[in-house]
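User: Hey, quick favor. My workstation is busy. Could you predict this chain's structure for me?
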Amino acid sequence: MKRAPEQASFRTTLQRGVVIPAIPLALDAQRKVDQRRQRALLRYYSAAGAGGIAVGVHSTQFEIRQPAIGLFEPVLSLTADEMDRLDRLRPEPLVRIAGACGTTAQAVGEAKLADRLHYHAVLLSLAAMRQASDEELIRHCRAVAEVLPLVGFYLQPSVGGRVLGCGFWRQFFEIEGVVAVKIAPFNRYRTIDVIRAAAESGRDDVALYTGNDDNIVADLLTPLRFQVGGRWVERRIVGGLLGQWAVWTRRAVELLDRCHAIVASGSDIPAEMLRLGAELTDANAAIFDVAHDFAGCIPGIHEVLRRQGLLEGTWCLDPHLGLSPGQAAEIDRVCAAYPHLSDDQFVAAHLDEWLGG
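Assistant: No problem, here it is.
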């Protein structure tokens, strides 16, 4: 486990609620890591105001773990090295989250690597244990939490996750090392299951983050109240750990600030915010390729960053993976319709700086 002062510092940041992009993998035309552009992405996210970075997750391409590719440790190491540099220029360190997946032996091994590289927490995917019982899953989570603080992950079943009921989450919140949950089932019922379990657990030290790229604004503005022991307990989602926030990150930071200000004021939610939420969902549908069941999700993220000059191309480790038919036109449409969602001018003003040195 991390030393207590360091752990307390990153937990304070998590609990306040910040923007945490799920970082993509920058590749060149030979499908090798483009270190210059990988570092540029990290510099972009930091300059945009992100409070943390998640690496080794879906947006970073799970194939980095394949022995023949062998990029898991190099990518985590490069990311940690650049975050060290960025932290020297920041008033507050970036929250460092490393993805872990697989069965228990693999997940524990990945958590130990993240610990050696000075990551703060592990975002644990349970996709490899679809047939396990809740009790087996909880033992798995406890084993990983003994290595590093744990961020739970409710991944939507349509892309490899599994249904996790309120009973599972009640047990999950009993794990001392849990510091946050990324709630990403893309389903209102299942999102409420997690938040109800958090309320019923009595844990007010676990930060709730949206991973529902299809419902970002509403997640950030909605208070959820539950009867617990004869009294009302309210919980809120405070930030986002999102693939969508890997693009247009400066606007994401501004959006989260606006949501925090509205919540703090206790005022009614302006209709403008509801409209903005729908616009962001429409944009996400294009970028994440909802029309083709998310097949072009990662290339869609790459395409937005390519248009801004942060990436050279949309290459993925899988040579067969690319934009779906009509996806580029859909991205054209949402970019033209919602220019206020884009941070193109911010990126253009700093791109040479991020790509240099």
